[in-house]
Amino acid sequence: MTLEDPVGLVLNVRHFPPSLYCVYAICVFYYVAVFPFIAAAQLFFESKYNLSPQWANACNSLVYFMSAILSPLLGYIVDRTGRNIYWLIGSIMATILAHALLAFVFIHPIVPLVIMGIAYSILAASLWPMVAFLVPKQLLGTAYGLMQAIQNLGLAVMNIFTGLILDSYGYFLLEIFFIVSLEIALLAAAFLYIWNSIKGGVLNDSTSVRGKRLEEIQSKRVSSRSVNSTINALVSTTSDDDQTIET
Ligand SMILES: C[C@H](NC(=O)[C@@H](N)CCCCN)C(=O)O
């Protein structure tokens, strides 16, 4: 497969590893509990907590404000530590806690929203970079494009469901729906952890172990390139420049 061979690139999408589809599933079922929640939350804050429309609106912005401030720092911390699957599982569990506090407990919504803001920022820092560890660099645009497409398809479908649940049963059942969606994301993350361990993938390595393994892969690639270039010189074949880490 080469960059000059777009048909080859498209065909290789079929060979994306199962871990990537797990990442896509987590992306759909996690974000369903965040974006549609925020879209519908203003009236929830007004009715359950008796907040004024202005305060309800301010609460609604809190998750995104927190992400705007925290994401670079949390991204740096995840880069320094590695162990992306642990961060991912922790952030999904914290989001479940935030929704459970909103559904079952009567404390000021700022508490669950702060938890959600931190968890949402950690999830972005740990989930999205995984794609780069799973597919060859020539296919990153395709892999992220597919992730964005699947996420938006999921959100489009689930938005219809959340609207129906809200209109027919109210906010309590909507919160239960979000918690169930997050539990599916948690199951997918557990499957990702198991699959990654079985396959010896790099997703949950510490940064130092990951660095050593990537160096090994690169040095193997360099030596295979020098072998290939010798062969190329002899028989005029092209070298395979794939970068797949997990199969
Ligand atoms: C990083 C992640 N981005 C997305 O989910 C985008 N597809 C859509 C962004 C919409 C505004 N938050 C995120 O936002 O956490």
Helical amount = over 70%
- Inertia-based shape: elongated
- Give the beta-strand count: 0
CATH architectural arrangement of the largest domain = Up-down Bundle
CATH class of the largest domain equals Mainly Alpha
Provide the structure class.
mainly alpha
Topology order in helix (H) and strand (E) letters:
HHHHHHHHHH
The poorly predicted ranges are 227-243
Largest sheet: none
Please give the domain count. 2
CATH homologous superfamily name of the largest domain? Answer: MFS general substrate transporter like domains
The CA-CA distance between the termini, in Å, is 16 Å
How much of the sequence lies in strands comes to: under 5%
Radius of gyration: 21 Å
Small molecules held by this entry: the ligand C[C@H](NC(=O)[C@@H](N)CCCCN)C(=O)O
- What is the CATH fold-level name of the largest domain? Growth Hormone, Chain: A
Give me the number of helical elements: 10
Report the mean per-residue pLDDT as an integer.
Answer: 88
Features:
Growth Hormone, Chain: A, 2 domains, mainly alpha, binds the ligand C[C@H](NC(=O)[C@@H](N)CCCCN)C(=O)O, 0% strand, 10 helices, 247 residues
